[in-house]
Amino acid sequence: MASAPSGTASAPPASTPSPNGTQAAVAQGWGSAIDGDEFNTGSTPDPARWQIYSSPGNAGQGMRTPAADTIANGVLTIAGNANGDTGGLAANFGRQKYGRWEVRMKTSAHDANYHPVVLLWPDSNASPTCTEVDFAEGTTDTSSISFFLHYACTGSTFQTLATQALDTTQWHDYAVEWTPTAVTGYIDGVPWFRDTAHVPHESMHLTLQLDWFPTAAPTAPAQMNIDWVRLYAPAAPPETQHLD
């Protein structure tokens, strides 16, 4: 992935995440969730709530199969095997422009060929700007998490990037707040990413994926675990000032 253009994102100094996973919704006062999934019923994702992938994998590599997505003990698991068969699902709820999403996730000590990613994806696959908001993406190991804000289809600079040192094998709460003027990322209630120069302005929805990026090295099985996902109302616009 390309490097970020300078001056378009800010990543405050790394902070030690709260051991109990402080939620951005609580720390930032977002109020009660208006939608989401606690994964407390059934053994597979609810097809009325989720579009469950059954298709070729990332960049046509491997396969995404519904069998990779399972629920047990209140946790969704998306698993990838040694052959690159993995899973993913897209929310049928919360398809909107602007809002706040929060996801509690941890990963296994995953293979470097697997990238767990929590993102917002355009409702229209024909996005003119190839918009994508990857607000929690693991890459080659479990010692960091990245935020990628894609805002162009071509060119030498097409995304804003920030990376935070973090043990992703522990539970953490990852959130994004998307307003007409900024995209802000949070980990355990602490803001760590912000871009005001490349804000998307098209309807999007939450997606959970374990993407396979095969290399010459053998692939080992991996998984990502999701405790819950929650959607919060967009921030209220400032009150219009009236002059008497």
From TrEMBL:
Specify whether Isomerase is a keyword of the entry: no
Which top-level group of life is the source organism from? Bacteria
Spell out the SUPFAM superfamilies in the cross-references.
Answer: Concanavalin A-like lectins/glucanases
Q: Which residues lie within the region annotated Disordered?
A: 1-66
Q: Which GO terms describe its molecular function?
A: hydrolase activity
Q: Which residues form the GH16 domain?
A: 11-237
Comp. bias intervals (Low complexity): 1-19
PANTHER family per the UniProt record, alphabetical: GLYCOSIDE HYDROLASE FAMILY 16 PROTEIN (PTHR10963:SF55), GLYCOSYL HYDROLASE-RELATED (PTHR10963)
Q: What is this protein called?
A: Glycoside hydrolase family 16 protein
